[in-house]
Amino acid sequence: MKIIDFDGLFDEKLSAYISANAGKYNEGEWEDIIPALYKKFGDTVIKSLGVTPRQYYAAMDDAELIKCLKAHLKQGVAVSGFLLDETEKRKRADLLLSMLDGNKEECVCAINLLGAEDCAIKKYLEILVSTDDSELKEKCADYIKEKADLVAADALEHYKAGRERELMLEIMSRSVVRNEEIFKALINEFRADDENLPMHAGHLAAYGDERALEFLLDKIDSDGISFLEFQELKYAIESLGGRYDKERDFSEDPVYKLIKP
After folding, report:
1. Residue 195: pLDDT above 90?
2. CA atoms 77, 75, 82, 128: torsion sign
3. For the CA atoms of the chain, what is the radius of gyration?
4. Burial of 33 (C-beta count, 10 Å sphere; 0-12/13-18/19+)
5. What is the spatial distance between Cα 21 and Cα 3, in angstroms, rounded to a whole number?
6. For the purposes of burial, counting CB atoms within 10 Å of the CB of 173, is it exposed (0-12), middle (13-18) or buried (19 or more)?
7. Are 100 and 127 in contact (CB under 8 A)?
């Protein structure tokens, strides 16, 4: 299998095109022209190959395509949009899942291609609790939250064990199927952790259980909360169908002073 740097070839042609058209287009126009040129390049026959970049990858079977993708990542050769498009088109999640056990480059690439596929969510959770890489944690968490119910029970167990507690709370708060243990965990954290009050109020708003209203209303009425905390609490209350109309004085609050005339 020959690894072709199609993006490198395109960059060479693009440089020549830009030089030949120097001063003809402004920066905004180039932003529209370059993607159009890249798309056209994908359907242009490369003489040395006798096929277009798109045809080159379309001729590979599924296993060859994934092998080619891995080879690009391993050798540090740019993965072209044409390779990614063809891989995504095949919808071979089973083959992409194996890349989640590879190095970071393979893992990130597979996550980007798999997105929030049901079959990948549990594996994302495994990665999240086992890696120290913040980028991987964030990528996995973003997709897990889209399908939180698939791993809500697992997230609860990780939370109980003290693994990535904040992320587990965030994931659990996005679940739709009601679970009494999850609700109690969200409430307990809200009541116990005043230093992160806005975050916990947000979790209760996301979870959507109206029983949280009494706790939110009690907290927002207490003395000593900041303007930012007040705003987050009020948003959570309103998102759950409640109201809080009592006038509060935040004229001495530093955040209030910054945003109010």
Report:
1. yes
2. negative
3. 25
4. middle
5. 31
6. buried
7. yes
